[in-house]
UniProtKB/TrEMBL annotation:
<feature type="domain" description="Flagellar basal body rod protein N-terminal">
    <location>
        <begin position="20"/>
        <end position="38"/>
    </location>
</feature>
<protein>
    <submittedName>
        <fullName>FlgB family protein</fullName>
    </submittedName>
</protein>
<dbReference type="InterPro" id="IPR001444">
    <property type="entry name" value="Flag_bb_rod_N"/>
</dbReference>
<dbReference type="Pfam" id="PF00460">
    <property type="entry name" value="Flg_bb_rod"/>
</dbReference>
<feature type="region of interest" description="Disordered">
    <location>
        <begin position="61"/>
        <end position="87"/>
    </location>
</feature>
């Protein structure tokens, strides 16, 4: 029922993206002591969504099915400096990333909840 509403698709994509970013951050933290491990990072949802939507232009609304991001986000190697054992994970940076990701996920859930509340109020069910 809600699959055709773009606000729900976008909030779902935001939550999914935050989950993928958190998995990358967790893997980095788990390998903080692994010699030669290179930290990985993912772009923020804003950067990923902007890149995905700027490639396709429509001439009128409904011309193309827009569903936000259809391809899963990709992790890339971080440009952090490596320690003497070759590991480039900074636990401090990963904790900061984790907090940013948690806020991004909470924002996605807040958007979803608010949109659902608006939809319920419009049909008279609160």
């Amino acid at each position: 029922m809600f699959k055709n509403l773009e606000v729900f698709q976008t909030s779902f994509a935001m939550a999914r993206h935050a989950g993928a970013r958190q998995a990358v951050t967790a893997a980095n933290m788990a390998n903080a002591d692994t010699p030669g491990y290179r930290a990985r990072a993912m772009d923020s949802f804003r950067d990923t969504y902007t890149a995905a939507t700027s490639e396709i232009r429509t001439t009128r609304s409904g011309h193309l099915e827009s569903g936000g991001i259809t391809t899963p986000p990709e992790a890339h190697f971080s440009d952090a400096e490596a320690s003497p054992n070759g590991n480039s994970v900074s636990l401090e940076q990963e904790m900061v990333n984790s907090i940013e990701i948690q806020r991004e996920h909470s924002r996605a859930l807040a958007i979803y909840k608010h949109s659902l509340d608006v939809l319920r109020m419009s049909i008279g069910r609160r």
